[in-house]
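pasting for ref. prot 1 ->
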Amino acid sequence: MKRLLSAIELVAAFFLLAIALLTAGNVLLRDVFSIQIPDWFDGARMLQGIALFWGVALATYYGSHICVDALWEHLPPGGRRRLDIAATLLTLAFLVPLAWMVWVKVAGTGTQGTMDLRMPLWVFYSIASVGTTVAALLAVVRIVFLWRREDEKLQHEPLAVD
């Protein structure tokens, strides 16, 4: 499981890096040479969507999304676990249709492409779709771990750099 989570973190980080490099490169080229990278805006938007969906997968698994724990902090451990299960079930109830609809979007792109280079959009949408599917699957895994009282498996451990 650690390898899978590390791979997901690397995918999200890679696409965030790609967005930063694309944007910085375009700004540099535009300011210094008065040219711009073709499709930089469309590319940055697509890469941001991919990074967002893969990030949602991690946030869902770790339960580390932005939230207010006013109720959760005042519950006993059993109540916290039940509330975590209910919240993750609700998240799953939204992620499954989202994943389905993003896959429907992939199927409906046809020959659509970016403005300048005509890169097919289905490639970007497919990578984002896998991210939404992984998010839904990790929500199921989280529910199972919470149900079995294996909360320690849900702790975030930083990636070890070898």
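and prot 2 ->
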Amino acid sequence: MKNPFFSFTLKTTIILCIVFGVHLGVLHLLQIPLFENKIVLSYIVNLVLVIVIFGALYLLKKKYKSQLGFLFLAGSFLKFIVFFILFYPYYKIDNEITRLEFAAFFIPYAVGLVLESVSLSKWLNKLQ
């Protein structure tokens, strides 16, 4: 029997690495500097948060199965707190958040959110 946490971690890491490569490829094609806007930190932080939140949900899924949705929302709230602590002050230095800054944070955030949502949905269907 394969370990769902390990499978999720591996799948998420691979997918976010691919998305990161595509993101850098698009920036390169558009002749935009590749490693600005804290893009590397954004992908790393989002990957770590997704794995930690998934792990917490996985560990708590049996004991708190009726509250998993709320725990998932708490995880999303945690991601926003991290954004406002780590990224927002840097992005607002010039009093404007550019599309590139937004994309640097939002793309890995959205990919992680989709992966978490799909996994949580599968669990909830199996637990019923």
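The two ends are 21 Å apart (CA to CA).
The helical segments are 4-29, 39-60, 68-91, 99-127.
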